[in-house]
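We were asked to recover a plausible sequence for a given structure. The inputs and outputs are reproduced exactly as logged, with field labels preserved.

PROBLEM: sequence recovery
POSITIONS: 315
GIVEN STRUCTURE:
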């Protein structure tokens, strides 16, 4: 009896613990619930719609459950044994209701979801009264465990950081030099996969200037946690000034240097006044195995990235 009493006491404390845990989570920044662009806003609206819709279903179900428990309880006033008839052979009305309602629920969730998904496959439309702008094309290529951002229009390339203009759609053309990964900038929108031998497109846009976090959201081995980057969203004028500085001051990205960067491992932020697109295109069938052919032996071994990084920091 004592053990049962203690168990019930601890179970009674669970709701209080849950409340305290959730109150602590309130201090954390929920980036996906603080959209900074039209794509993220569309996804946020869909999330909120779905949550309220499902909350409504939960309220109705629990209200009906409570009603049934109270109305048909065994010790209700005026209950007679003759009221209970266990021989029920079906009720067409009830069966139609519990079949039709789930269909309606699925339809009401599917229509906005499918509509939003199709809309996200196109560049965001300008707000009312604003001029339509051509998307800025950025090739986002991953290699274990780093990011290459190529700007063909500006003929520059960055490693592990990204600059974009605000109020202009960005067309990311995604591919991978080796393992499968995924580009994700939570403040601007959802993720999409980078794969070798093919290209996927992701449209994003920043409406507010700032520095946003980006990362690989698909686990791809030892350096996964460190495969992050910063997104600098700035005015069109500041972006053009930055791109011009990179063009004038940064070294060219030679084929030999690019091959060195492709080796499995971690690297710092870098800038170049040309792109690797002149030498290799990882989204094509011909170049999909480019990195594996060069570094096949290294991919067979565990690289101990963090031990190497620690040793270099003491030197």
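RECOVERED SEQUENCE:
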């Amino acid at each position: 009896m004592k053990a049962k009493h203690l168990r019930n006491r601890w179970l009674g404390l669970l709701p209080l613990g849950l409340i305290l845990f959730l109150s602590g989570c309130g201090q954390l920044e929920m980036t996906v619930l603080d959209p900074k662009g039209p794509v993220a806003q569309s996804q946020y609206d869909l999330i909120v719609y779905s949550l309220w819709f499902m909350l409504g279903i939960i309220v109705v179900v629990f209200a009906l459950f409570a009603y049934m428990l109270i109305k048909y309880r065994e010790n209700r006033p005026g209950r007679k044994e003759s009221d209970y008839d266990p021989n029920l052979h079906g009720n067409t009305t009830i069966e139609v209701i519990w079949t039709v309602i789930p269909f309606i629920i699925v339809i009401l969730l599917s229509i906005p979801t499918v509509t939003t998904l199709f809309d996200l496959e196109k560049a965001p439309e300008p707000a009312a009264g604003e001029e339509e702008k051509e998307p800025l094309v950025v090739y986002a290529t991953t290699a274990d465990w780093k990011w290459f951002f190529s700007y063909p229009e500006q003929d520059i390339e960055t490693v592990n950081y990204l600059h974009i203009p605000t109020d202009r759609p960005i067309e990311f053309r995604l591919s991978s030099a080796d393992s499968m990964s995924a580009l994700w900038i939570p403040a601007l929108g959802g993720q999409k996969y980078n794969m070798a031998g093919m290209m996927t497109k992701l449209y994003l846009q920043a409406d507010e200037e700032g520095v946003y976090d980006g990362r690989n959201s698909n686990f791809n081995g030892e350096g996964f946690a460190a495969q992050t980057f910063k997104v600098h969203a700035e005015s069109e004028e500041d972006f053009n000034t930055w791109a011009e500085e990179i063009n004038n001051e940064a070294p060219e990205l030679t084929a030999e240097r690019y091959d060195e960067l492709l080796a499995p491992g971690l690297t710092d932020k870098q800038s170049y006044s040309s792109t690797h697109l002149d030498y290799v295109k990882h989204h094509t069938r011909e170049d999909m195995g480019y990195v594996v052919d060069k570094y096949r032996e290294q991919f067979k071994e565990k690289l101990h990235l963090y031990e190497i990084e620690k040793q270099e920091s003491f030197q």
